[in-house]
Amino acid sequence: MLNIGHNALSNEVLHVLKDSLQQNRTLLRLGMQSTHLTCEGAIALAEIIEDNPVIQRIDLRDNNILVAGLLALALSMKNNNSVTQLDLDDAPKKKLPAVSVCLLFLYFRVAVISAQNHKRQRRNRQPVTAKREKSQTPKVLTAILTLPKLT
């Protein structure tokens, strides 16, 4: 377990640790609660999740992650069956009427994918250790870049 939570780290820490976390095959839990992450950090973390077949639990509570970041995390978890728990805040901190429905849907979607991954792991009863092939452009980033803009 690596718990770097409750530190003023911001998004930069994920850019610095990205290669190490993508290649790591022993880290099962990552604590990043209250580290001043935004959507940029969540997208970087989503790329890490997509390439790390062993990480199981990530704590992102008390950060400022909105629609783009949550969407990136949900998409990466669809491509990675090892993440069984992604801790997020119960509800968005800021009440933004135009995006609050999207945020709530994405919170729900992340929870559903976590539960599906957990069920799949219990059914298989073996850890996921297969190495994934890296693509030129991460699938998560490609999906984010092709999203229509909200108005």
Care to describe what's here?
The protein has helices at residues 12-23, 39-51, 67-79, 97-124, 139-145; strands at 2-3, 29-31, 57-59, 85-87. With 151 residues, the protein is α/β, with parallel strands linked by helices. The protein has one domain (2-145): Leucine-rich repeat, LRR (right-handed beta-alpha superhelix), CATH 3.80.10. It has a 4-stranded parallel beta sheet. Strand 1 (2-3), helix 1 (12-23) and strand 2 (29-31) form a beta-alpha-beta unit.
What top-tier CATH class fits best? Alpha Beta
Structural class: alpha/beta
Number of domains: 1
Outline: globular
What distance separates the N and C termini? 40 Å
Estimated helix fraction: 40-55%
How many helical stretches?
5
Number of E-state strands? 4
Radius of gyration from CA coordinates: 15 Å
Quick recap of the structure?
48% of the residues lie in helices and 7% in strands. It has 5 helices and 4 strands; from the N terminus they run E-H-E-H-E-H-E-H-H.
